[in-house]
Amino acid sequence: MSVRRTSFYLDKRNKRFMGVCSGVADYFGWDVTWVRIAAVVLTVSGILSILPLIYLATAWIANPKPNALYVEDAEQNQFWTQVRVAPKRTIREVRSSFRDVDRRLRDVEAYMTSSNARLSNEIDQLR
């Protein structure tokens, strides 16, 4: 089974009870403390009295987070959180980055292949 970084997983390493709140926080990139507080407040206030059933069903249905996903650095974790939350925006940002790199590479190629006498002399001196 391949590991999908964009799927929802229960976060068993940071769990308090079954790992659902920590999984939700990890999926959306939120602070787990605020997710837990919101779950308790919504349950106690009666706004979402069905929340405990949803919580238990999620804990029963969802898979635990694979160990391979725990060894990420912060930058990689932030990137995959953005991919999960707004994939179209992330794709636009990656395309934009590639276009910028491509433009800079074209500029370097143009400079290197131009008939720049000083550059030619420097390259000849290196040989």
TrEMBL record:
Segments traversing the membrane: 34-57
Pfam families: PspC
Membrane topology, as annotated: Single-pass membrane protein
Domain of life: Bacteria
Keywords: Cell membrane, Membrane, Transmembrane, Transmembrane helix
Keyword flag Transmembrane: yes
Subcellular location: Cell membrane
Keyword presence, Transmembrane: yes
GO CC annotation, single: plasma membrane
Domain Phage shock protein PspC N-terminal, first and last residues per copy: 8-62
InterPro entries: Phageshock_PspC, Phageshock_PspC_N, PspC
Protein name: Envelope stress response membrane protein PspC
Taxonomy of the source species: Bacteria, Pseudomonadati, Pseudomonadota, Alphaproteobacteria, Sphingomonadales
Gene of this entry: pspC
